[in-house]
# Entry
Amino acid sequence: MDKEETLLDHMEREGMSRRTFLKYCASLASLMALPPSAAAAMAEALGKAKRPSVIWLPFQECTGCTESITRSHTPSVEGLIFDMISLDYQETLMAAAGHQSEEALQTAMKENFGKYVLIVDGSVATGLDGAYSCIAGRSNLDLLKEAARGAAAIIALGSCAAFGGIPKANPNPTGAVAVSDIIKDKPIVNISGCPPIPVVITGVLAHYLTFGTLPELDGLGRPKAFYGETIHDRCYRRPFYDQGKFAKTFDDEGARKGWCLFELGCKGPVTYNACATTKWNDSTSFPIESGHGCIGCSEPDFWDAGGFYKALSTPANPLKYVGAAAAIGVAAGAAVSVANRASKNAAKAAHEKTTLSDIEK
Amino acid sequence: MTASLQRGINALKEVIDAPVASFFSSCVHCGLCADACLFYTETGDPKYTPIHKLEPLKRVYKQEFTLLGRLAKMAGLAKPVTDDELESWSELVYDSCTLCGRCSMVCPVGNDLTYMIRKLREGMAVSGHAPAGIVSATRRTVELGGPMGLKWPAVQNVIKHVEADSGHKVPVDQAGAEYMVLLSSMEIVNYPEYIGALAKIFNKAGITWTLSSEAFEATNAGIQIGNSDLAREIVSRIVNAAEKLGVKKVLSPECGHAYMAIRWEGPNLMGRPFKFEVVHVLELLDELRGKGVLKMKDKLKTPVTLHDPCQIVRRGGVLNAPEALLKEVVVEFRPMSDRGKMNWCCGGGGGASAIHEPAAEELRFTAFKRKKAQIEETGVNTMVTFCANCRITLEESIDHYEMNTQLLGLTELLAEHLED
# Structure
């Protein structure tokens, strides 16, 4: 691919119309809760964008994150954007191997120093000086520190890179940690999820290419646009939760009727991600829609959160709390009601029958 | 001249009730009411968002009836409602709200915004911030009997003409008649044919009816300005007259807000059920149609569309009669896209047509663009409606835009084509 080719040129060559591209920008802008004017800005910036250099380092990972992105849906704009970035180092996808590939990494880091985007998937092993996970004889820890030095920004892709993920689960034999535990002096975006949603990564890339900055992040370093609300708040089964209609087993009447999976361990109420809105596989479905509760994979330490099928905690002695809460509520309600009645009665007492002169000043 | 801010705030405190409290606490700030309001859709100005128009009422509610609001008020952190603010709000509460009720229809949490605007007007009226046009209409209604200052001798005069033109007698003060018929001043002055039409239909159906010399006027400016004391005084004239004549039913004229006043607000204002039933003229006509009394000799050949008056259809609940009646008398009926209970207002309801100030009229013409687009979409040049106030507003706007649209009243249209 010609290095000077713009994204739009590339898309046209691949048979994707400008209209499709604009529609994509508009949907991406709205998905990220950007103002409508951002769609045009995004289209312009992305259309003109030259291939940004991206280095992708895979550490303690399962390649699921790569699969999620590369197999999103074809031919997708996401896929094309992904084709578009100059992926100078990605073990799974690159043709080079052995020394050749390590050379490519060194060259890319040197040539684009200070400008490249570093994507990391997988957690970083720190036990035994990082010996648990090595590439070409060097530990992940060492590689990360070296690559981070020249990075403009780091994208920690997937729950392993973002929070440590499955490798960090008890008893964490490799001493796995998240990227943000090691690197403290670079902007890091955590795109958590096991795996993360494809459009989230393209969304972050598009934002970076358009505005030159990273999108607004939440307390856990995740883009607010995608991780701002819980699965539960956006779940199509939410009305059943509100009505107290729950499936008790995976094959009961409630499950067949599509009732809420809360009692079957759904972690939707405590999980921040966009699955319920963007969905998966070209917006076909998402876990809850297929009948299984959310396992909370985009939250830290989801693997050790007490079992996928155990319902989220309910008070040990609900009656105790309910009783106390009810008593407080009744007292407060009565107090407010008495006060309100008093002020309404005072207003009534102060009422003077309106005559015509009372409607003129 | 005793209107004051204090009276206004006191009135607001008095009218805030459980529904208002639950409405304000359940608003989810979705903004759907904006797109339901023709003053917003036609101007694009967010200040016309219905819930925003209620801001003063909301603040009084918070500061007087919620715990946090009271604490904030005590700590001096709450922004008090001022006279200047209410003055500037007059445009939002009167000029740009016709009490059409479309916002209440679309609110996803079921908030009746129109109910609250009506309540906010209580405070606006006694703090002296009602538009001068509505104040003088109210004055004329209370002092003279009707918003146009029409007195009984003038009505008698009109009756004489109607009797001569139609050949039907118009009974007056007949105790024990089945129906006491109410009129609106606009009908008496601008569309006296309505009275002749009614006489013809009553005679044909063999129903006894009467007018009352003590209460012929059905409109109630007290409701438009938003003052229950005055509204009660006005409505009690009708109630007293009807109960004195001992009629079984009172017939509300086509006029939308007159129907609202006597049928829905009336018993609440009086604080007791009426001893008679209130029937809208179209309900009566539809009943006669069902009995086969209403037979047409011919039909109107030109294709027509129908404008549904908000207070009769959406707010009043007379949902099916209008179209059923219209289809009896026309060859081709082309309905508008948003019709029935989702109709768009003419722009002049809720007292807006009585304001007569350049800015208010300009706004009314701008809001009419919605109706204009609806009319044009149907591609017909004849529009039927059944509210004298809608009719005046529509006619003014049609003239303003130099449109080629003819307006017809439904009851008259029916009478004209009725079998002799």
Notes: Chain A has a mean pLDDT of 85. Residues 318-355 of chain A form one domain. Chain A has 16 helices and nine strands.
